Amino acid sequence: MSTGALSPSLRSLGVPGSPSAAAMAIGSVNHNSNCGSGGMNASSHHQHRDASPLRSWSDAVSVRSLASIGMGSTDGRKLTIAKVPTSPAELLNLASPQTFIEKDDGDFTECSSCSRSLAESLSDFRSRTRTHYWRNKLQFILACLGCSVGLGNMWRFPYHCHKSGGGIFLIPYFLVMIFCGIPLLYLELAIGQFTKRGPISAISKLCPILKGVGLSSVVTSFFVSVYYNVIIAYTLYYFFSAIQNQPPWVHCNNRWNTDQCWTPGRNTTRPLDGRSPTEEFYNLKMLQIAKDPNTLGNVRWELAVCMFVVSIVVYFKLWKSTESSGRVLHLTATLPFAMLAVLLVRSLMLDGAEIGLEYFLFKLRWELLLDSKVWVSAVGQNLSSIGIAFGLVISFSSYNRYNNNIMVDTVTISLINGVSSFAVGLFTFATLGSMAKEYGKSVEEVLPDGPGIVFILFTKVLSSMPYSTYLSMLLFFMMFCLALNSEFAIVEVIVTSIQDGFPRAVKKYLICHELLVLVICCASFLLGLPLVTQV
Description:
InterPro entries: Na/ntran_symport (IPR000175), SNS_sf (IPR037272). Keywords: Disulfide bond, Membrane, Metal-binding, Sodium, Symport, Transmembrane, Transmembrane helix, Transport. Helices cover 59% and strands 2% of the residues. The protein has helices at residues 8-11, 21-28, 52-57, 63-66, 88-93, 116-128, 137-148, 151-163, 170-195, 199-206, 211-241, 277-286, 301-318, 329-332, 335-348, 353-361, 372-386, 392-397, 406-439, 443-446, 453-463, 468-501, 503-510, 513-528; strands spanning 72-74, 79-81, 100-102, 108-110. The strands form 2 sheets. It has a two-stranded antiparallel sheet with strand order 1-2. Helix 7 (137-148) crosses helix 22 (468-501). The chain starts with 7 loop residues before the first helix and ends in a 7-residue tail after the last helix.
């Protein structure tokens, strides 16, 4: 650094009984040529190790005069600018300027002469950045699809489609996806990939005043994980119930069946208000719906045990680290597509499937486009299926390389998500058409109420297929793995975000990663117990 590099205010500053300001500034800087190959050229090198003149000089030096001093180095590719000193003490600490060398993997190493304070700053930087990445683009896309084609499409989409009038729901759904879902997905991918942090730290880094936005997304993810635990417990309950010679939802000879239960092969008169055994198994056996829905019944201990098993699996999956998340993605994210294809083909072959497809694709109720509830459902389904506003996308993309092409990821994820949603819609209404013909009703009359539509329809299709026991076990095991994949991602986001956003509190109160995961899993299990009571 030459004298000419100093600001005029600093050169004009003179203090009696002390060296000139320019000489003091030059003497305070010791350029170490070992720290980077392209350090700042200086006309002369000086060392000044005595801090006592600076102490007497500090009162006369203004912050404004020091703020114009810039120190840094370059290796020919990058320019590293050190913190601008605002006091003589900081100027003395920069007497041996340090540089950091970036490795190919995104990590940093410091020169051997780094001071303790700078080393601590570097350690803090490392604690907030990613030390591992997705192995390839396919692994990242499968991770995102594992959440979107999980419960978001297989369970929520048929429910919203049925509630919003059938095929007319596709119009607002795809319009919202194009003009809202895709841009927001691109935005969250960019935020995570650029900041290399979870949602709390990422939003805080971009705009500190909006840190609560990242925090709210994590809180939302936590409550989503609570009721996802319940849905996963349902799939596990169905899986164990299918381990019989004949699944209990195939016939009406069970103790919980009512006189309204009827199947085509049953030698009885079809009741006017007939119900399928699959519907009665869901409502009367698993949920045990009470006569008064306003009272809180007893805990369904079978479901509580299933939910406890889910919590244990989630804990031992994430208790050590989150690095192994991508190892099972190739199975859990691709198997649902294969199973969905089998179910779709089989549903299209059912007797009466054309009735449901006609209702879904051609009998559109255009007046529903003016209903705001339909558009609200379309927005909610888009955000939940892609994972927007839950912190999932930000957390996943934070493990991408900095130069990853997120436009390709955005288009790929959105396209596959849209196609799978349409396929689920075809399967749903083809099955409903078969049920409508079987019971002599219209499609609107045979529609099951509530979010249990997917369990009722899946078991209905499987009961009409050969080897229904094995196929039922395979289906619900697939759904169990698929839902677990979503739960892994949600809990991983919560853990990562808390560690990134509140590192000191985690180290002080929770001590280790394992205890943090245990607290989250236990809280999710306890809050889910009221959701598995008799309703």
